[in-house]
């Protein structure tokens, strides 16, 4: 067996798989946005996928806007957050995602023709290897959890806390309520570290507030106001969940009206849910290369497979 050729083949297969996944995810976003025509809210009459644009309006009869837990920004209907930790292993050091999440309350999207209720739900997930795999191909400056993508112009770092520093009260409360996060600890190696030290954390967050124009791709379904809000804010279990679960299974035989409909993530997760402060044109532009990246990734996987096969095939 030709070991160098075998090793090259394995590296190519693994790298090609990552490229393929990136292209597949981006192609999925692109396909969903391009194939779904943009409607006005008044045309939301059938259950299923909808694509809308409009202004965010509070829905106080369902839930009041909240204060973002990390940035302290008030009057929010959606907050996307990410927590990273500086990790040092051997000669390697980098920021590693510990967890990310989306918090929201129901709100209306108003495009001037009518308004419809939107309930993204609240979700959180740990980082680690699975988290890194799930991040492949996600939109830049976005938070993607449980098939729900909330996309922003920018997700700024709002707090940095050193491993040996006292944890600020607001950050401590946030960590205590998020089961996806553990309390911050230091390391004896930090005594000789210069710059970032093992265990340092940075907390990033962006928000959506009433009055902002947003793009929405989601699933329209019959609203059942008896179920209340499917969302959670601080004080929930913090381990994930979706508003879609609180509205039952979509009934394709029931006609809708904007005042009886709610747009949520797809409960089957067959279609993406995208809520963005960027326009559809910018999102399409950011994902349009997905099909080419997918093809390139498959080609690299094929080349790697051929290299592995050649390395283990006895010479005649």
Gross morphology is: flat
End-to-end gap: 13 Å
Strand content: 25-35%
Major beta-sheet overview: 5 strands, mixed, barrel
The total of beta strands comes to: 13
How are helices and strands ordered from N to C? HEEEEEEHEEEHEEEEHH
Low-pLDDT residue intervals, each spanning 5 or more residues: 226-239
> Can you give the mean pLDDT?
84
- Helical segment count: 5
Number of self-contained structural domains: 1
Q: Nearest-angstrom radius of gyration?
A: 22 Å
Residue share in helix: 25-40%
Give the structural class. alpha+beta
| Strand order in the sheet with the most strands | 1-4-5-12-11
What's this, in brief?
With 316 residues, the chain is α+β, with helices and mostly antiparallel strands. It has one domain. It is 26% helix and 28% strand.
Written overview of the protein:
By secondary structure, the chain is of the alpha+beta class. It has one domain (42-276). The protein contains five helices and 13 strands. It has helices at 3-35, 128-135, 169-177, 280-287, 290-312, and strands at residues 48-58, 78-89, 92-104, 107-110, 115-118, 123-126, 142-145, 148-151, 157-161, 201-208, 213-222, 261-264, 273-276. Strands 1-4-5-12-11 form a five-stranded mixed barrel. A hairpin with a 2-residue loop joins strand 2 (78-89) and strand 3. The relative contact order is 0.25. Residues 226-239 have low confidence and may be disordered.
């Amino acid at each position: 067996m030709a070991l160098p050729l075998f090793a090259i083949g394995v590296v190519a297969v693994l790298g090609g798989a990552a490229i393929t996944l990136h292209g597949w995810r981006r192609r999925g976003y692109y396909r969903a946005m391009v194939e779904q025509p943009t409607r006005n809210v008044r045309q939301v009459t059938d259950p299923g996928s909808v694509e809308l644009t409009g202004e965010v309006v509070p829905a106080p009869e369902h839930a009041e806007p909240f204060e973002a837990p990390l940035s302290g920004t008030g009057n929010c209907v959606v907050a996307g957050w990410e927590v990273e930790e500086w990790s040092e292993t051997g000669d390697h050091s980098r920021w590693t995602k510990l967890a990310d999440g989306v918090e929201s309350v129901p709100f209306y999207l108003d495009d001037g023709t009518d308004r419809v209720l939107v309930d993204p739900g609240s979700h959180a997930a740990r980082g680690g290897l699975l988290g890194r795999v799930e991040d492949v191909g996600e939109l830049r400056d976005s938070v993607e959890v449980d098939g729900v993508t909330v996309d922003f112009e920018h997700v700024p770092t709002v707090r940095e806390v050193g491993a040996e520093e006292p944890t600020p009260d607001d950050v401590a409360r946030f960590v205590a309520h998020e089961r996806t996060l553990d309390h911050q600890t230091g390391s004896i190696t930090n005594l000789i570290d210069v710059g970032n030290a093992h265990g340092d954390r940075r907390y990033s967050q962006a928000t959506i507030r009433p009055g902002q124009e947003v793009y929405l791709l989601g699933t329209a379904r019959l609203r059942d106001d008896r179920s209340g809000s499917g969302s959670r804010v601080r004080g929930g279990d913090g381990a994930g969940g979706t508003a879609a679960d609180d509205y039952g299974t979509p009934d394709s035989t029931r006609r809708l009206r904007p005042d009886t409909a709610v747009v949520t993530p797809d409960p089957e997760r067959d279609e993406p849910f995208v809520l963005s402060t960027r326009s559809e044109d910018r999102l399409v532009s950011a994902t349009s290369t997905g099909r080419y990246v997918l093809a390139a990734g498959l080609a690299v996987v094929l080349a790697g497979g051929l290299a592995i096969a050649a390395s283990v095939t006895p010479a005649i």
